[in-house]
Amino acid sequence: MFPSSIDKEELKKLPLQAFPGTIHVIDSVAGMQKYMPVLKQEKVLGFDTETRPSFRKGRVNKISLVQFATPFHAFLFRLTALNLPDELVELFEDDSIIKVGAALHDDLIDLRRIRDFKAGGFLDLQKYVEAFGIENKGVAKLAGIILGFRISKNQQLSNWDVDKLSDAQKEYAATDAWVCLKIYLELQNYQLK
């Protein structure tokens, strides 16, 4: 069984890990047409979103980036360039593809502010880990508890609306979606033992 929690000091001692695969940034219709068929072939995808932080009380910015990850590829969709196209909405509604993320409730509300859709196939790790007796539910702590490594959160509050994402931003965004997938797959393997 997994420990129910991990403290900050224990987490700091773990090795740092980042997404090891290829990162694809999609900000055009051509990119959508190239990569959506690849995503639709998957049974399970890691999922996350990024939003430019707001430092004013009561102000909420639109989601800037939607990320999907497979074990070896991450797909970063720039909503600042694409808005919320039909192809993404179809993927969000597809029950046959599991989209694994953490704290999905807020992500889905924010995405529906851009365009309404009926979410299908989403699995929230924060609820899923309860069956394993895990109390710490943040992605960084879940990575430590379940995968035995830590992930960097340094880019979390960066500007996701910039014209060109930095390499550090791309790695951070890819890692967030990938680690959700990796946690889910590890828990699935654990259940099969």
In short:
With 193 residues, the chain is of the alpha/beta class. The protein is built from 8 helices and 6 strands.
SSE topology:
Layout: H1 8-13, E1 22-26, H2 29-40, E2 44-51, E3 63-69, E4 73-78, H3 79-82, H4 86-93, E5 98-101, H5 104-114, E6 122-124, H6 125-128, H7 139-147, H8 167-192
Parallel strand pairs: 1-4, 2-5, 5-6
Antiparallel strand pairs: 2-3, 3-4
Helix pairs in contact: 7-8
Describe the fold and architecture.
The protein is α/β, with parallel strands linked by helices and about 190 residues long. It contains eight helices and six strands. The chain has a six-stranded mixed β-sheet with strand order 1-4-3-2-5-6, sandwiched between helices. A hairpin with a 3-residue loop joins strand 3 (about 65-70) and strand 4 (about 75-80).
